[in-house]
Structure formats: C-alpha cells, structure tokens
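Help needed: design a sequence for this.
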C-alpha cells in the first residue's frame, strides 16, 4: 500500500497519504483495517484521510485526543454527514442521521426501553431464542447466516412483543430476500427495498395499539408510541418506523457480527469455553438471564471480543461546525474528527500484548472511556450500550450450554458487511453436542 506523505508544509491538517481521494476512498471501503494500520505506522496517532465523497477525515488514535472529542459540546460538530450512508436504509428520521436538538430529543424519548428493568423480560426472550436455535447444531455450522437470524428474531420479539404475525412476516422477508446475498452492501440494498413493506407493518401495528390490544406486557412499539418529549409531543409514525429500521442494522447486523466474532474466538480457545461453562453451571440448569449476563468471566469475554473486534473502524465522526485548534493543528470547518477504536484498542501502552485474545485483562480492571469505547462516547454514545452486550452474552452462553465448538486453524478474513467489519460469510465452526 503506497502511502506517500503530503508534501504541503502549509497544510493545517495532520499528515496523510498523497494518493488521490478516490483511491483512498476505494481502499477505505475495501480494506479499512489495512489502511488504518499502515497509516498509523507511517504517520502516528493523528493522520488525515481524504475520502472522496466522504470528505476529509482526521483519524484519531490517541486516547487523550479522543477524550477531548467526546467532551466537546454538540454544537461544535455534526455527525449527519458522516452517517449519511445509512439514510437510504434507515430513513430521514433515524437517530443516526440527526444532530443537535433533534438528536437529543429522539434519544431521550427512545432511551427508557433500552436500559434498566425494561431489559429483564427481554433477556429471557433472547436466551430462549438462542437455546431454540442451537438445539439442532451438530457438525458444521456456518456462523454468519445463523447469527443474523438469531439476532433478528430477538429484535422482532423486542419490537412486536407477543404479536406473532408481524414477527413471522418480517422474518420471512429477510429469509427470502435480504439474506440471499451477504456480500458487502448487498443485504442492506435489499433491506432498503423492503422499507415500504416493513414500514407498512409497523404502521398497522401502531394503529392496533391505539385501538387497544388488551392486557399484555408492553413491547417497544407500545413504549415508543407512548413516549413524550419535553413539550409533551409524541413521535410520529414515520419517526417510529425509521427508528425500527435503524435497529434492523444496529441491533441486528452489528450484534450478529460481534457475536460471530465471539463464537469464533471461544471456539479457538477451548480453555475459555470450559471456564464459561463452569461459571454458568454454578447458577443451576435454568439461570436467571440477567444474573447469567452479569457473570464476571462472561462479561470479560464479551468485553475482550468487543475490544479486539470492533464492528466499526471508527465511531461516528464529528464534522467541525467552525474552525478549531485541536492537538496543535488549526483545523478548518468541515473537517471530520474520527476517534478510532480499532487502533486505540490495539495500543500496547493501554493493553498488554494487544493482539492476543485474553479476557482476563478485564477481570477486576476498568479502562478509561477514551481508551475502551466499543459503543462510542460522549453525547453520541450508542443507544444499545446495555442491550447489545446483553444479547451477545446470552447467545454465547446459551450456545455453549449445548455444544462444544472447534474452529479451523486459519483465522477468518475481515470483510465489509455494509459499514461493518465482519468475519467472512463462509466462516464455519464444528459443533459437537454435549
């Protein structure tokens, strides 16, 4: 990879490759990890990428600099441009493509179902879905297709609750259309074509809830329909639909990718499998899902997976709304600052032997939120900060309660799945019934 340094001494930007923006954008899409690693070796903790239509981006691989970004008030930047590649799937109202007051309003209205006691009942659902899915695992198991279906089934239960008809209808559309091709952007393109049908199902379900569905446990649609902002305003149907479409990626594809990495890692580390089974067995044959998810070694294993296998190369980039002095550089407005968890999570001064999978590094040890941030930071921290790890841990534990996994000797390649960094689609493990 030819990464000649910029020669302009007058540039207010950190150094970076001199190849054309179009070539940089192509490499960013095809081999983001290789590009990040090569630039970090050549230019250090701050470097500039010019990514064609994505614009000029300063990659930040320094935890102190990342902390400065996370502490910045929302008015100093916008994320809409950086996240615009999601708009065609998620819709114009999705939280991901909002900034400022609009982002703050939506996040406050959406947050309650995604934290605390509201996740308790959903934990039981996740565990049952995973147990049911893994009961037939025996022999060769292709991970990615199975994990996408498991995580979507979990989400649909969260969204529609006990309403089986919409759950099955949407799941069948994914089986027959979206998952026909799992390469790069293909699945998300197919999902975007399904938007009208999925939104119509959500609209019909919202209307049923307004008429009353009797005495039942509230689901996500119930809670979003009942949410109110500071002025007493409700979410529109279009806003609710777009948040559900957003979750089809953030709570399905991102979690499926992370859980695929987790299962491969434990398959390649039999000692980790044994410790996870022993820890879970101490809770008895039918553990409380929330108590199970809180077990220290299971939690540490999930944390280590998310450290070593970030599902995105960077968190949401902050495009500067005005010129700013940052780490000695006088940056112009319009430049995007991108804290890079992929590189920061691999710093040897933060994580001893950083490329080795070692969950024990998280036992009785915490890390600063600018050193370890798989869910981003500051006011743009991910809404699924609790839901995603809960889902990953319960799927992992439920699978290991039924099978012993083994992995091929060669590590899977990292490939693009939309914007995500996924293991190759054909990654297969061997499952043996316990």
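Sure. Designed sequence:
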């Amino acid at each position: 990879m030819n990464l000649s340094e910029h020669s302009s001494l007058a540039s207010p930007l950190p150094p970076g490759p001199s190849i054309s923006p179009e070539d940089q954008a192509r490499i960013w899409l095809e081999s983001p990890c290789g590009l990040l690693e090569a630039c970090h070796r050549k230019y250090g903790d701050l470097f500039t990428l010019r990514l064609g239509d994505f614009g000029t981006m300063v990659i930040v691989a320094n935890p102190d600099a990342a902390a400065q970004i996370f502490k910045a008030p929302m008015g100093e930047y916008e994320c809409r441009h950086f996240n615009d590649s999601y708009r065609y799937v998620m819709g114009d109202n999705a939280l991901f493509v909002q900034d400022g007051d609009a982002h703050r309003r939506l996040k406050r209205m959406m947050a309650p179902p995604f934290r605390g006691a509201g996740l308790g009942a959903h934990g039981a659902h996740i565990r049952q879905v995973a147990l049911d899915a893994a009961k037939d695992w025996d022999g060769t198991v292709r991970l990615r297709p199975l994990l996408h279906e498991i995580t979507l089934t979990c989400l649909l239960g969260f969204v529609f609750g006990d309403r089986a008809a919409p759950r099955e209808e949407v799941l069948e559309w994914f089986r027959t259309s979206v998952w026909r091709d799992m390469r790069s952007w293909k699945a998300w393109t197919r999902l975007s074509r399904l938007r009208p049908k999925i939104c119509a199902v959500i609209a019909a379900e919202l209307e049923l809830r307004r008429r009353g569905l009797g005495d039942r446990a509230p689901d996500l649609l119930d809670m979003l329909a009942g949410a109110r902002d500071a002025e007493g305003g409700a979410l529109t149907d279009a806003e609710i639909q777009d948040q559900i479409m957003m979750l089809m990626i953030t709570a399905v594809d991102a979690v499926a990718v992370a859980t695929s990495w987790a299962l491969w890692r434990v398959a390649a580390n039999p000692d980790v499998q044994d410790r996870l089974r022993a820890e879970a067995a101490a809770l008895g044959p039918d553990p409380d899902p929330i108590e199970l998810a809180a077990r220290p070694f299971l939690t540490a294993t999930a944390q280590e997976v998310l450290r070593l296998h970030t599902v995105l190369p960077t968190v949401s980039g902050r495009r500067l709304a005005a010129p700013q002095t940052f780490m000695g550089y006088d940056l112009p407005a319009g430049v995007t600052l991108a804290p890079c968890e992929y590189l920061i999570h691999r710093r040897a001064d933060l994580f001893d032997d950083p490329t080795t999978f070692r969950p024990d590094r998280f036992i009785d040890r915490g890390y600063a939120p600018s050193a370890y941030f798989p869910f981003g930071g500051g006011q743009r921290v991910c809404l699924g900060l609790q839901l995603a790890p809960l889902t990953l841990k319960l799927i992992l534990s439920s699978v290991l309660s039924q099978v012993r996994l083994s992995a091929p000797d060669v590590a899977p390649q990292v490939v693009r799945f939309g914007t995500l960094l996924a293991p190759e689609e054909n990654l297969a493990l061997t499952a043996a019934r316990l």
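The CA atoms of residues 9 and 67 lie 28 Å apart.
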